[in-house]
Structure formats: C-alpha cells, structure tokens
Specification:
By secondary structure, the protein is α/β, with parallel strands linked by helices. It folds into three domains: about 5-160, Rossmann fold (3-Layer(aba) Sandwich), CATH 3.40.50.300; about 170-190 and about 195-200, no CATH class; about 205-325, Zinc Finger, Delta Prime, domain 3, CATH 1.20.272. It is about 55% helix and about 10% strand. It contains 15 helices and five strands. Strands 2-3-4-1-5 form a five-stranded parallel β-sheet, sandwiched between helices. Helix 5 (about 120-130) links the parallel strand 3 and strand 4. Helix 10 packs antiparallel against helix 11. The longest helix is centred in the last third of the chain and has 19 residues, at about 245-265. The N and C termini lie far apart (about 50 Å).
Length: about 325
C-alpha cells in the first residue's frame, strides 16, 4: 500500500513525501504516536517508496522493487522487534552486521524498529554510535508510542514524524465504508486511536455481547441495584466477558457520557444511538454533575483493578457508589 492510500495522518505523509521528492531523505526517522495510529503501516509504505525506482514521491506498485516488497522478498528491509520485553544489544549488533553486507541490488538498506523505547541502555548506546556515523545508504525508522521515552541523544539524531490520534468521525466514516456494523463502530472509535486498533476491537470475540451487557448495567446501575449486581455476576463474571473488565469499564464511561451529550443537545455525539429512546427518558434523572460522578467512579474502578484489586470486587464497589450517587 502506498502512502497516498493511507488515511488520517496527512502531516506525516507530507513530511515523508517531501523528503523523497526533494532528495533530502534523513538517515533516521522517529515515528512517534499512540497505538493504532498507523505508524507501522506508514513505515512500510515509506520503506516501499524509498525502494521504488519510478522516481516519484511515493511507491508506484509496478516496478520490480515494489513487487519484491509487496511479495515479502525485499532482502534489504530489516525488522527489529523486542525480544521478550526489550530490544537487546545482541539484536543491535546483529542488525549492524546485516547492514554491513553489500546491498542486493537496491540503492538503500532500511530497518524498521518497533517499540524502540524498549531498547536496553546498552542497546540504545550501541545504536547511538551507529546513528552518529550514518552510512549514506541506510535509513532507520524507529517506532514508538512515546518519543520522550527515547534517549535525548537518539531523539536529537532522528527526524521526528508525529502521529496524531485519528478523529472519531474520520474512523467512523472509514470503518462504515468497510462494512463493519455501525453500532460496534460507534463505540470502537472512542476506544482506540487508529483504524487498525478499531478493527481489532470490533472483530474480537464478545465485543457486541459486551456492548449489550454494558447497556443493561448502565440502565440498572442507577435505580435497580440488585438487578445490576445480578447482571454483573451472571453475564460478566460467569462468562468469558469477565476476562476483559477494562473494556467493560471503558464502554460504561461512554454510556454515562451519552447522558451528558443528550442533556447538552449533542445527539450526534451519542455512542449508544440505538438506545436513544431510553436515554431521552432517563438522561435528566441526574444533573450533569451526577453523571460526571458516575464517570469518575468508573475510572477509579479501573485504577483499582490496575492496583491488583480483583475485577469482581472493583465492579461491585463501583455499582454501590453509583447507586449511592
């Protein structure tokens, strides 16, 4: 896929296409942005464009080098991923060894490093020495969710290419055109930063079912405490949905936000649009501050889970707090 075919990151696309068109390709790039924002897809598209022999500012998809790339036969492209939880110095040494060999006929060698912030200090220092004395034929593309987590000395020797979270409206339109269910899409675009992450959420087992459970919990949590507790036990903790408690909480936050959207007259922003009749009758059961408190209680439950409180206990305590107002 060419860079022009990728949507949602126009600034990154402009930076990279200008570099190719002007002949000012840097020896190293730092693609920094949230998970799901399309960094890896853009890295692959940029790499293909760099190998392309058509002379344009993007991959043509037709030349020999483009066809080799698309079929996974580009020997001068190297991918570095964490070995376990980190990228280790031996991986950097092996990469440098590979890059020292003669090209297989292309003008460049390119390496893409995923989760570059996981490099050990020794690995980062080894890479730094390589970046300080760059080979003209080698281009590095470092991918990270947090550019500030990289060594300042590495940041200073790379060109930053920022990736922004995609706007929910952009993702909604794109995913709807791809044929994904509208109700699932409306929720997923508020849970992820990019299209690929949204697709993963929508396609995972139980997402639609989890959405239905959250609707029931949302309706019951305010006035029918016993029913809410029963739903949580039977539909969540006695099923596989109990394995994704953070997803449940994230959807529940969207449910309470919908009440605020309705009160403010922002019906176009409502996620659970199929529940608009119920929402219209109950959104004013609490003032905006009351719904904000529900959101804060839900976020607090998520923090408690991360602090190793059992999900069942955290959600039971959440339902009690919401009932109490």
């Amino acid at each position: 896929m060419s860079m022009a075919e990728l949507t949602g990151q126009p600034k990154a696309q402009r930076i990279l296409q200008y570099a190719i068109a002007s002949g000012k390709v840097s020896h190293a790039y730092l693609f920094s942005g949230p998970q799901g924002s399309g960094r890896m897809a853009m890295a692959n598209a940029f790499a293909q464009a760099l190998f392309c022999t058509s002379g344009g500012d993007d991959a043509c998809g037709q030349c020999l080098e483009c066809r080799k790339f698309e079929h996974g036969n580009q020997m001068d492209l190297h991918l570095v991923e964490p070995d376990g939880n980190s990228i280790k110095i031996d991986q950097i040494r092996e990469l440098q060894k590979e890059l020292s060999y003669r090209n297989s006929g292309t003008q460049r060698k390119i390496y893409i490093m995923q989760r570059a912030e996981t490099m050990t200090l020794q690995a980062a220092n080894s890479l730094l020495k390589y970046l300080e004395e760059p080979q003209s034929s080698v281009v590095a593309i470092l991918l990270t969710e947090n550019g500030q987590a990289m060594l300042p000395t590495i940041r200073s020797r790379t060109q930053l290419v920022p990736f922004m979270p995609l706007a929910p409206e952009v993702m909604l339109q794109t995913l709807a055109m791809e044929g994904f269910p509208q109700l699932s899409v409306r929720a997923a675009v508020h849970l992820a930063s990019g299209l690929e992450a949204c697709r993963v959420i929508i396609q995972q087992n139980g997402f639609a079912e989890m959405r239905n459970v959250v609707i029931q919990l949302g309706k019951d949590s305010g006035t029918r405490f016993t029913a809410a507790m029963l739903s949580a036990h039977q539909q969540v903790f006695k099923t596989s949905l109990g394995e994704q408690p953070q997803l449940l909480l994230a959807l529940l936050v969207l449910w309470y936000k919908d009440m605020i959207h309705f009160q403010a007259g922002r019906q176009e922003a409502i996620v659970f649009i199929d529940q608009i009749d119920w929402i219209s009758k109950h959104a004013f059961a609490r003032p905006v501050e009351g719904w904000v408190n529900c959101i804060e209680h839900t976020l607090e439950a998520g923090k408690r889970m991360k602090a190793h409180v059992s999900p069942q206990l955290a959600i039971e305590q959440l339902l009690i707090r919401i009932q109490e107002g």
